[in-house]
Write a structure and sequence with these properties.
Keywords: DNA-binding, Transcription, Transcription regulation. Belongs to the LysR transcriptional regulatory family. This is HTH lysR-type domain-containing protein. InterPro entries: LysR_HTH_N (IPR000847), LysR_subst-bd (IPR005119), WH-like_DNA-bd_sf (IPR036388), WH_DNA-bd_sf (IPR036390). This protein is α/β, with parallel strands linked by helices. Among the domains are: about 90 residues, Winged helix-like DNA-binding domain superfamily/Winged helix DNA-binding domain (Arc Repressor Mutant, subunit A, Orthogonal Bundle), CATH 1.10.10; about 100 residues, Periplasmic binding protein-like II (D-Maltodextrin-Binding Protein, domain 2, 3-Layer(aba) Sandwich), CATH 3.40.190.10. Strand 1 and strand 2 form a beta hairpin. It is elongated, with a radius of gyration of 23 Å.
Length: about 300
């Protein structure tokens, strides 16, 4: 019994999105049509693949097994298309993106959407180490990573530069200089990320270089929590400048240093074996173009 690839692609879209409505938009077909195709697949093989009535839908054991094989199948199909010189990106193509740099990922997505209007995204936010693991396991197509560890079988495209700045409550005493002396950090409560955070490791390198330690640290897991804690007057923090959206409760101060240790670079990373696939090749092209404009 031959497999109906139209029905299989419909299942793959629903399983990827965990939503019939999102999958229908991705495939540019109606929800009733997509539901009929999914039902036809289940009835033909007398197996339940997806459970639930509302998103997020749940894959059955058989559904999970089929999803893994379908993911490999359509990935290989894309690679064959690239090998044969196929440049066109499928309508509703899904780009799976992992990142430890959400603001830059959002800018990349906007540029990609402008170039490929029918593209869809699934984004996983994690730290640099976790994002690299997602790439390694092929759970994402591309990674946007700050200072990634260099892997011999990866291809990297420079994407952005950023620098550490201090964020303090708006009530912070103002000496008129508009900058943060590094020695002041020794007297303050500093909000920090988890131990594996790139922000924390960059801060630690900088302070170790000048022989300064924070007066006290308070570990908070997310950027959002750190910004809110600073806004509430619980202390200060060092963050990358792009991570500091306008907030009247917070002041952003450059650090009083010329050290290059406050600077970081971010890259778009892909597995080299997949870089000829149209979706990933276009990603690399867009990343290089953005790097030239200095996002």
């Amino acid at each position: 019994m031959s497999v109906n690839f139209l029905h299989l692609r419909s299942f793959y879209a629903v399983a990827s999105e965990r939503s019939v409505s999102k999958a229908a938009r991705r495939l540019n077909i109606s929800q009733p049509t997509l539901s009929k195709q999914l039902k036809a697949l289940e009835e033909r093989y007398k197996v339940k693949l997806i459970e639930g009535l509302r998103p997020p839908l749940t894959l059955t054991t058989a559904g999970r097994a089929l999803y893994e094989k379908a993911e490999r199948l359509f990935g290989i199909a894309d690679e064959i298309g690239a090998l044969l010189g196929e440049d066109e990106i499928d309508s509703g193509a899904l780009l799976r993106l992992g990142t430890d740099s959400p603001p830059y990922a959002a800018e990349f997505m906007a540029a990609f959407k402008a170039a490929v209007p029918n593209a869809h995204f699934r984004v996983t936010i994690a730290n640099a180490l976790q994002t690299n693991e997602l790439l390694l396991k092929a759970q994402v197509d591309i990674g946007i990573i700050c200072e990634p560890a260099v892997e011999s079988d990866y291809t990297y495209a420079p994407l952005y530069k950023d620098r550490l700045v201090a964020i303090v409550p708006s009530s912070w005493p103002d000496d008129g200089s508009g900058i943060m002396p590094l020695e002041r950090i020794a007297d303050e409560i500093v909000m920090v990320r988890e131990a594996t955070s790139r922000t924390l490791s960059t801060m630690n390198r900088l302070l170790a270089d000048v022989g300064i330690a924070p007066g006290q640290t308070m570990q908070l897991h997310t950027r959002e929590m750190i910004r809110e804690a600073v806004a509430q007057g619980l202390g200060m923090s060092l963050m990358f400048e792009k991570e500091c959206p306008p907030d009247s409760r917070i002041r952003v101060l450059p650090l009083d240093t010329t050290s290059s240790l406050i600077e970081v670079k971010g890259y778009l990373a892909v597995r080299s074996e997949r870089k000829r696939m149209p979706l990933i090749r276009r990603s690399l092209e867009i990343a290089r173009a953005l790097a030239k404009t200095g996002i």
